[in-house]
Structure formats: C-alpha cells, structure tokens
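#onboarding

Welcome to the new folks! Below is a worked example of what a typical request in this channel looks like: someone posts a single protein sequence, and someone else replies with the predicted structure as tokens. Don't worry about understanding the tokens yet, we'll cover that in week two.

Example request:
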Amino acid sequence: MEIRPLDEDTMIAEACCGSGHRFLKKESELTEQERAILRAAKIKAEWLRKMMPKGLSAQIAYEGDGAIGFIEYMPIELSNLHKGKDLYIINCMVAPHKPPFPDPLQVKRIPGCGGALVEAMIEDVKRKCKGIVTPPGFAYTSDMRGFFARFGFEGFENQGLKMLIKRFEPVELPSPVHIEEKYQYEPVQGKVVVDVFWSSICPIVGPFTLFNIKKACGEFGDEVIVNDICIDDRDVSLRYGITQWSKVFFNGKPAEFWGPPEREEIREAVEKALKAG
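Example response:
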C-alpha cells in the first residue's frame, strides 16, 4: 500500500471517493450510473482545484494501480459551519474497513489503510496548525473514538458543538456557526417546485444527487420545475440558511432521503406532491 498526496495525478481518484480506478474504462464501457458518478467527480475536482491554493489537501491510499481510500482536510477558516483558527478540519474519509460502517466501494478489508491515511495527514499539517478536529459521521466505530483515539484525538463540546480534537499545542476550541434558516418556498401554480441545494464538497450527496433528481423529474415534463442552487459559496449558504451539504425541498417540504436518493424515491416524492396539489 502507498499513500500519495493530492495533486493532478491523484485528483480524480480522490474526487471519485478513493475509487477512481473503477472508471478507467472507455466512455462506452461505463454504465449510466458510472457516467453520472464520473461527471459528479469532475465537478468535485474543479472544487478541489479552487480550494487547494487556500490550504485544502488530501492523502490518497493506493494498492497496486488502484486507489482504495482517501482522507481530505482543510483549514477550519474555510468551513461554512465552524468558527475557529489555527486548526485543520477533516472533511471526509473513506477506507475499506469492517462493520458497523461497511464501505460500499470496497468489500475487502485492508488492515492499516485508515491508520496510514490519518498518519499521513498528521505529518502533513503538524507544522501548519495547532491541531486537527473531526466532525462525526465517518470512521471505524459508531462514536469514532475507538479509531481516532489511537492517534491522540479526544472528545470535546463547545457551545453545543461535539467533535474530536488532536492538539499539537494549546489552541482555542472551535465553535459552531449559528445559521438561521431563511429558505422560503416560492410556489408556481399548477407545478411541483423542487429546490435542490447542493455542495461540491461531496460528489455523491451533491452533484450526483442533483443529476438523479433532474433525470427523474424530467420524466414529468413541464409539471415539475427544478431549481438548482449550489451552496459552495458561504454567502449563498448563509443567504438561505442551509446547514447541510445537500438538502432537497418538494413544494417547500424537506425531502426525507437517507443518503443519495434513488430515482424511484424521487418519483414517489414528485407524485406525492402532485397529488397534494
């Protein structure tokens, strides 16, 4: 196994969630879903290129010629949801691992992959900041502590914000950005209005979800209007008060999707909104 830093050679592998080797085929050999994922990954790659000069970086794990995982991190000043300084924050991490969070892209567990990624990140940033924080939502155990504690991370709570931190030296704890929801549904008589807020930070819950929604809603013709709203820019996110990487509203009501929605789920949501008038 080899760990490589984020650069032009490793970028598409990172943007494909550490599985870019799955898409190293002729365009004609890709499935419709693979083409959509690759298209979403290219949007993520453009975001990475924009953010790298500001301090964002990543480490990508390879076994042979194929990428098998990655960890992405950036200065906390770049986060839309956190206030802090002299810290890096982990955006996302994917590595082939064991339950309770099986990796959908890799069924084979590769011992040491996650640890090697974390160690490479620490080595990269330890002279650039006073510490690293990580939000909940990924890792090897349900509360993350069992994995990250091995690398010196410990839990904290500050103003309701619960995270883990690894300190290189004393540092002020980060706090949450308190965002007031300002989104307002603008009805169009006789139409279903689908407002899609999405971010490039995650290609799957962001642009890939947007593509699925546009494809499924397109089946209803002019009965459905899809509003595509990218919230990569902090000012846009604050303008609407959106606190997630992706959020979808059908006629002003938030969708109850768990993860990126399948087209059948989207069709059902549209049909329900149509029946409700």
